[in-house]
Amino acid sequence: MSDSMIRQEHEPPKGKLANLRTLWSFVRPYKLQLFLASVFLLIAAGTVLIIPTALGDIVDKGFSNDNAQKVNDYFGVFIGIVAVMATATAFRFYFVTWLGERVVADIRKAVYERLITLSPEFFEENRPGEIVSRLTADTTLVQTIVGSSVSVWVRNFLIAVVGTIWLFVMSPKLMGQIMIGMPIGLVAIVLVGRRVRNLSRRSQDKVADVGARANESLAALNIVQAFTQEKNEAGRFSRFVDDAFAVARSRIRVRAALTFGMIFLIFGAIASVLYQGAQDVMTGTMSGGQMLDFIMRAVFVAGAFGALSEVYSELQRAAGAAGRLAELLSAESKIKAPAQPIALPAKVDGDIHFDNVTFHYPTKPDTATLEHFNLHVKAGETVALVGPSGAGKSTVLQLLLRFYDPQAGAVKIDGVDIAKTDPKAFREHLSFVPQETIIFADTIAENVRYGRTDASDDDVRKAVEAAAATEFVERAPEGFDTFLGERGTRLSGGQRQRIAIARAILRNAPILLLDEATSALDAESELKVQEALEHLMEGRTTLVIAHRLATVKKVDRIIVLDEGKIVAEGTHDELVAQDGLYKRLADLQFGSTA
Ligand code: ATP
Questions:
Q1: Cβ distance 482 to 536 under 8 Å?
Q2: What is the number of other CB atoms lying within 10 angstroms of the CB of residue 487?
Q3: Are both 393 and 323 inside the same structural domain?
């Protein structure tokens, strides 16, 4: 994985803030929470602005000996303000964070609902790993925005603007003095701050490299150990870790310098204002309380400006994330139902017709994978597709499942062009057993039920029986309720296949597409899988990519494919007699047929 790819996965590009508009449609349904969040935010920001004045008043008027009651009053008011601030801040936090979590949950659902309908083409153009990262990392970024940054931004904006004006009104002279010093300090801080940010980003990338490296080698641990590369891998990993440390070290150095500068500047400024202020207090133009008020407010305002610049870059990152999510939300599947889809008859016979089909994969526009391909499979017939690797056998099944539409010609089921149907409706009539069985992290029963979700327990049991899988299922620790680990790693290859076959039996569709597994099964499992398959093919139209002699001998017709064209067809014996590609393949695959 290259550096830039990793960066792309972990760091969305900075986006235009306009992208954040996408988020608005997700926030809009929660107007009440938004309103409450805004109200509490205003109250909290207001109290922050009032506190310096309250404190100033306490110093000026509350510390007087002549009126003990006044002391109580001023402290009472002060505590009241603090209580309002604490309450408003807590409620603001609650509603804003609630909004963030709710909006992200809704975005995740919406994105997933969209993704699950997209055609394979989309996932060829976009790496699934990156898409999952959008679903998790990008949405998390968005969550920080909706659930905090926006409110931090608004609050600090209010404090900065109102506070600055207030400062000017209080003492134009002191404020003027700050205004002269401030730009120099600000420029320095912004410049150094930018460097810190760059270094932080590089630091994150380096940590991502460390993760990617560990991921790659741990995922291939058996290869690492088989080739006794542990020491080299550890060495390589340690170089990545040291790289990450080196970048982190530069970052913390700059950051330490920045901390020095910031503290020196802030307290230097406070000292200088204090000095000026002290003169004013002595001449009587300002009271001690007012000076405290001024200084405290100035510190708050400076803090607010600092927070604004930080949040701005966060907003930009989130805008990038929101932009990428918006892309996913608006992604259109290439395989769609037309405006007026044609429905297949309720009872499909299973007559399949490839009518002069020419097809190329979207990523390979110049090479036709199937060219003028004609194939008619009658209802109930079993046809095997054979041919060298890359001949286009799987492509035929992909087109029948309508994962892609051909560029020319049509694929018809019972005379209906499937491109004119709703893919969800017509796929009901198909059952598919892929070469690689997909097992979900669920129980055996639920994995079989994937074929037909409303099937009863009894139907599931019967399907498992027909797939010759009852024996191992019953031997499993909790029978049908045994949980299969992710990707079904707890099952052998043959057992996984039989689960897939049970799933297909349960589906009970008139058309069966079978991509036979090449994995070498032991003789006994092979026999069982074979039996299960024969059971499955009964009374259905079956198109099978055949790798086994046993299958090929039993089918009604064999189609020999080469480079996307049918080069021969007939029964096993007929084709062997022709002495063509089939005989060569058969000799290679199954030993001499002569
Ligand atoms: P095998 O027996 O090895 O599975 P096959 O006969 O099933 O081979 P296909 O998988 O149909 O062959 O592939 C036919 C051609 O189309 C090959 O050249 C392959 O590289 C190409 N191909 C397959 N899938 C895609 C895809 N998703 N995008 C681009 N090209 C593809």
A1: no
A2: 14
A3: no
Look at residues 268, 300, 330 and tell me which one is the last residue of a structural domain: 330
Three-class DSSP category at 522:
coil
Task: Tell me what percent of the residues of the chain surpass a pLDDT of 90.
Answer: 29
Tens of pLDDT along 261-315?
878 877 887 788 888 888 888 898 888 888 889 888 988 888 888 788 778 777 8
Q: 499-558: per-residue pLDDT in tens?
A: 888 898 899 899 999 887 655 466 666 777 777 777 778 888 999 998 776 677 778 899
Domain boundaries, position 222:
3-330
**How do residues 63-99 score in pLDDT, each as one tens digit?**
666 667 777 888 888 899 999 999 999 999 999 999 9
Ligand 1 atom closest to Cα of 387? 6
pLDDT value, residue 30: 95
Distance 367 CA to ligand 1 centre (A): 11
From the CB of residue 222, how many other CB atoms can be counted at a distance below 10 Å? 8
Q: Are residues 322 and 357 in the same domain?
A: no
The three-state DSSP-derived secondary structure of 245-256 is HHHHHHHHHHHH
Residue nearest to atom 26 of ligand 1 (CA): 361
Cα of 512 from ligand 1 centre, angstroms: 20
Nearest CA to ligand 1 atom 9: 392
Lowest mean pLDDT among 35-39, 413-417, 579-583: 579-583
| E strand or H helix that includes residue 431 | strand 430-433
CATH code of the domain covering residue 357: 3.40.50.300
Residue type for position 415: G
Q: In three state form, how does the secondary structure of 251-320 look? A: HHHHHHHHHHHHHHHHHHHHHHHHHHHHHHHHHCCCCHHHHHHHHHHHHHHHHHHHHHHHHHHHHHHHHH
State in Å: Cα 410 to ligand 1 middle: 20
- Alpha-helix runs per DSSP H in 58-135: 68-115, 120-125, 128-133
Residue 15 C-alpha to ligand 1 middle, in angstroms?
Answer: 38
Ligand 1 within 6 A of 395 CB? yes
Q: Which residues pair with 81 in a beta bridge?
A: none
